[in-house]
């Protein structure tokens, strides 16, 4: 059996839900469906989840924003109308929404989570009703009923191990099950949402629990591209990737989905297929544990801006036991998370995401480094970009580094930093942001043309 | 004025001392001379310092090794005889030696240091007597008289700041001063030696204290080579280097001298010239603070064997605040010093000198990493070599990385690791030891032929 997940744009309106119905019913073994909240129908439109957050804030400030409330209900109403569904379906969606609004008004714990999840919940209710109306046996399954148990954490819900066994029982059900994404329940019964983009997480958990043969993740692109289409016109599509490649690519600028969302599926070794709701016959991108048979060693070029380099130098640093550890300790004390820490003989750099070190924190961190480590120099260089070339087995291939370095030279972009040595799947280069586009284009020509 | 230092082979016998006299007296401003203990006169010969250590050990075991004692005295006697010096010179050398032996016998604190320093001390006594006999005004100056004050540390003496002011007063002296290298005195008056190779340190301290215009370091090679002559036949000689380049080169296999020895001279911005006692007209290698005018950006290729890579992987490592710090903390707790720590998304490598992690310590460290960090994998890969290409401004030159990477490809050697990003002066590559020679030769062809 397959678990099929549809993203926000795939369930944005009645027309999209018709495509979803066609996709789900075109194969007998697409038996479990996970849905997001309705996304944007056109550029400039608002996502239902954003509207729900606005509504929640207005209630918290004791000024219910009726206009936003109406916009939310209208989104669901137009779906129900256009699909000719019975009116009680909309009633159920409204009931759930109004119950959550009351909870927020009463300032109940986690009431905002309950309100935020109404987008997914309404979509699931509507989709299952629509499938039934079209003659298919289908049920809405609430995550509590499905057994998605979570622990409430500051960054969002974390799935509990027992969920997987509970979910496995759903295999006995014969009808098409529609589960809203984005939330689960604590063992005490409180609804808690995952981090943003959390419907991918639900899909991944459900696929893992059900031990699905495949987890299909439907979005609005035909496949994962080998490079950000912002830099290269119509880049090559990736037909296959390994989990590790996907994870490394997701790290730097591959925003097809949240890189952590797939982890439950990865751990259970469920293959994942990224497909397009608007063009379901396209083969999509298959993500598997094992290395697929293929020619090229480089499968993708990921890139991201917004890094900074914290450079520290001190004479005889390399004789000082614990220097590197002490530097990282200061960052940790100040809650600053770092990405990489390449070191020379008497100097060390620490690469961070720019937002990790706002000016006020920079002052504290630089002050502590100067005082506690008695360094000679501390320099902060912002406007750094990272480029990552990714491919299984790449590090064992003689010449990849030289091809990459030649590409930078051809683009006339200086490599500020190279980080290779730990990951067997990737090689990372730091450049000044101004050189990013040229470098990525040159790497694309080198490895893909 | 210039401070001139002569190494062990430059003072190995009377013939060498004649060369030293000629070099010192050929320029009026070579006014302060620092000498090592007599080194090997031929392959298979023994260094006087090694003999002194043997002698000391025999005394500590209450079995004075008279044969070794005689070998030491013979070395000095033949110098005195061949240079036709008055007999009282030898008497003085013997007196000093026998006094130190008695101290060791009495188990006085630091008596071994006193004994170990008799090689330099005797050489200085003989050289100054020889200069006087040849008609030059010259004095032996004991480090206590010179004002070389040190603190006793486990790794060897550490110079105290006040030494520099004291040494400055020697500028008033008009004669040629001969100072034995390798030792200083604590403020309480105890003789303490520097770490092995410590005559370079004395020379460097004296040059800094006297604010010499130049510190000339005479050895037995015409200059510093751009690569280890073990790998390349008659490699290019370096006419100039910056301090930073020298320091980076010294780190990995450039054993012309101890990399820390030059630090006092570096800090005082005294230029250093490496010259050959046996060919003093050769220009040598000049080491300065400022970047000399020159074409090539790569000035040297250093390399060293005996590294290992400790590889650790853990799913979602990059979201775990403090992971890198905790890993380094474990190493620090176990007294293991690391060189570099390149990191991927979910993995991290730590490069160490092989001897830092003997098997019994490996077990403890690997056990702690597994237990405390709950990692997925820990792998130790030995037989790693590091190659470093060094040159000021190199990191700002587009194309150096690509030339280097091409050289590895041409040598058919896989790059296991690249560490570039912190030092502005070097780029480091990790390879398997079996590929080291081929890679170094290929890099040499690329950058120097």
Automatic annotation (TrEMBL), chains A, B:
Residue ranges occupied by any ACT domain in the UniProt entry: 389-449
EC number: 2.7.2.4
Pathway annotation from the record: Amino-acid biosynthesis; L-threonine biosynthesis; L-threonine from L-aspartate: step 1/5; Amino-acid biosynthesis; L-methionine biosynthesis via de novo pathway; L-homoserine from L-aspartate: step 1/3; Amino-acid biosynthesis; L-lysine biosynthesis via DAP pathway; (S)-tetrahydrodipicolinate from L-aspartate: step 1/4
SUPFAM superfamilies with a match to the protein in the record: ACT-like, Carbamate kinase-like
InterPro entries reported in the protein's UniProt record: AceGlu_kinase-like_sf, ACT-like_dom_sf, ACT_Aspartokinase, ACT_dom, AKIII_YclM_N, Asp/Glu/Uridylate_kinase, Asp_kin_monofn, Asp_kinase
Pfam family, one: AA_kinase
CDD domains named among the record's database cross-references: AAK_AKiii-YclM-BS (cd04245), ACT_AKiii-YclM-BS_1 (cd04911), ACT_AKiii-YclM-BS_2 (cd04916)
Catalytic EC class: transferase
Gene3D superfamilies associated with the record: Acetylglutamate kinase-like, Aspartokinase, catalytic domain, VC0802-like
PANTHER family, alphabetized: ASPARTATE KINASE, ASPARTOKINASE 3
Function comment: Catalyzes the phosphorylation of the beta-carboxyl group of aspartic acid with ATP to yield 4-phospho-L-aspartate, which is involved in the branched biosynthetic pathway leading to the biosynthesis of amino acids threonine, isoleucine and methionine.
Stated family: Belongs to the aspartokinase family.
Name of the protein in question: Aspartokinase
Organism: Halobacillus kuroshimensis
Organism lineage: Bacteria, Bacillati, Bacillota, Bacilli, Bacillales
